[in-house]
Specification:
18 helices; 8-stranded mixed sheet; 5-stranded mixed sheet; Nucleotidyltransferase, domain 5; about 525 residues; single chain
């Protein structure tokens, strides 16, 4: 408060040329930001170059850098126009715009303007039409029309932004006669697209920055006042070195901030996983309740039983256990259903991986429960080695491939997942390849599970549970309609049990008789 009172006499109205040529000083004196090397390098690059592109690992300060740049521009240039672009609006609201609001509130010299709660309203000064706001990068039309003498376009997580949108942004920043800047920032999750080209084929037109998570002050052993809250530290980096390892593509992309050639062909691309994680907090947990069960055996294996709980576009819970019996798996699954089920809610779904002996035993136990209470749940049996639902007309070779394909579609439609290291690795591990089938048609096939086990050093249990929790999803609206129709029909229609074929005979059932 004393600092504010002391500076009040020297205040001047914005926009002001005072910090126009020194954004680093603006960060220190106005916003009271702890300026790291990465932040300094970005602001200086932005001051002197029309196009800046910044690839980095996680937790290097990109979010703060974008927020500082936006406020500096807003305070320094007349008719300042600062759109912040990302694939999803929630990415901006819970990322750059959240940080911008924090810095705006804590500024030593009040910045003024009307600060809205969400990026769509943004920060606006009506007296001279200066504005900072968020824009989604779904279609080129959405980012067209950005104009003015002084424009700063900030593209967050640029690796996931489609090329047509980036091209439209380029057209919007083609003007001259004012101060026009464009900046990309993100993790290098894709070896194609405009962000990748800005660091390779088109780098002559860009000022390129690169920051590894290993280079933050925290990671380098900062102590006391030198520690910057929120940046990558030695413990976080040590976790990544231990699993998945320094030589893994994930470490190269997410820690070192390096493009990795093995990123193409993934069923679920790394940038899509990034987006799905970023959307989790902002995504509503609503829609029909469905859980996916990937069962594992007893304690003699390293596999885990994983159960994922989903409503609509959000996987709200994902839990794992070791050493559960088939009955124990069923008890935990039903307890999760009970804890999430709403009063008078239509039958939730249970999607079960019933491939193998354990899966068959769990299926048998679930069917026994349905005989006692047919309204308890709808059972969806998934045997990955069978034909997909659409049979010969499907673009997938097997049902397992179809499950993965549906999960990819769900993520692209805005699906949100919890941030879990194993889940991220599991989802990014499989590739889709085209295989020639017996009917002469090419179909998509995901990396076999046995190969994933070799790659990961374990079974992809969390990933399998997540994909099963989504299996059968078509769209949020369709699913909601189905749930509503099911609830309405429940009062008049007699309950029905899943009509899937009876479980196949378990060839191991006779072992106990023979002493096996």
């Amino acid at each position: 408060m004393a600092e504010r009172i002391a500076t009040r006499g020297s205040e001047h109205s914005w926009p002001s040329p005072k910090y126009r040529r020194d954004p680093v000083r603006f960060a220190r004196e106005v916003l009271r930001v702890q300026v790291t090397d990465a932040l300094c390098n970005f602001l200086v690059a932005l001051l002197g170059n029309r196009n800046v592109t910044w690839r980095s690992g996680h937790k290097t300060g990109k979010t703060t850098a974008f927020a500082v740049a936006a406020l500096w521009f807003f305070c320094s240039f007349e008719r300042a126009c600062v759109p912040i672009v990302a694939v999803k609006e929630a990415q901006i609201d819970f990322g750059v715009y959240k940080e911008l609001r924090r810095l705006h509130r804590g500024a030593l010299i009040p910045i003024g303007g009307e600060l809205h709660a969400t990026c769509r309203g943004g920060l606006h000064e009506a007296s001279d039409d200066r504005k900072v706001w968020g824009m989604t990068a779904q279609k080129p039309e959405g980012v067209q029309g950005i104009s003015g003498p002084n424009v700063l376009v900030l593209v967050d997580e640029a690796s996931g932004v489609p090329d047509p949108v980036l091209e439209a942004i380029g057209t919007s920043t083609a003007g001259s006669g004012g101060f026009v800047r464009k900046a990309y920032a993100g993790n290098p999750t894709r070896t194609s697209g405009g962000f990748y080209r800005s660091h390779h084929a088109e780098k002559a037109n860009w000022f390129c920055l690169h920051t590894s998570s290993e280079d933050t002050p925290n990671a380098r052993g900062a102590t006391g006042a030198d520690v910057v809250p929120g940046l990558a530290g030695p413990d976080w980096i040590a976790e990544w070195k231990a699993n998945p390892g320094e030589d893994s593509p994930e470490y190269a992309i997410r820690v070192k901030g390096e493009f990795h050639s093995g990123a193409e062909g993934k069923v679920v691309a790394a940038e899509a996983i990034n987006t799905a994680e970023a959307l989790w907090d902002a995504t509503a947990f609503e829609g029909q309740l469905q859980i996916g069960i990937d069962p594992a055996g007893d304690k003699t294996t390293n596999d885990e039983t994983a159960i994922a709980v989903r409503r609509g576009l959000k996987i709200g819970t994902l839990l794992t256990w070791r050493g559960l019996t088939p009955d124990g798996i069923v008890e935990n699954a039903l307890a999760l259903l009970e804890s999430h089920r709403l009063p008078r809610e239509a039958r939730p779904r249970i999607a079960l991986d019933a491939e193998g002996v354990i899966g068959i035993d769990v299926e048998r136990a679930l069917r026994a429960r349905l005989l006692r209470d047919p309204e308890a749940f709808e059972l969806v049996i998934v045997r990955g080695s069978k034909m997909p639902r659409q049979g010969g007309g499907s673009k997938y070779q097997l049902l397992r491939d179809e499950v993965w394909g549906e999960f990819r579609d769900w993520v692209e439609a805005g699906g949100a997942i919890p941030t879990r290291s194993k889940l991220r690795q599991d989802l990014n591990a499989p590739d889709f390849v085209n295989v020639l089938c017996k009917d002469g048609r090419e179909r998509l096939s995901a990396t076999p599970k046995k190969d994933l086990k070799k790659t990961l050093g374990r079974s992809p249990d969390e990933g399998d549970a997540a994909t099963l929790s989504v299996y059968g999803w078509q769209s949020a609206s369709t699913e909601a309609d189905e749930a509503e129709a099911a609830a309405a029909a429940a009062a008049t229609a007699s309950p029905q049990v899943d009509d899937y074929d009876a479980p196949a005979m378990n060839p191991y059932d006779g072992l106990a008789v023979w002493g096996g």
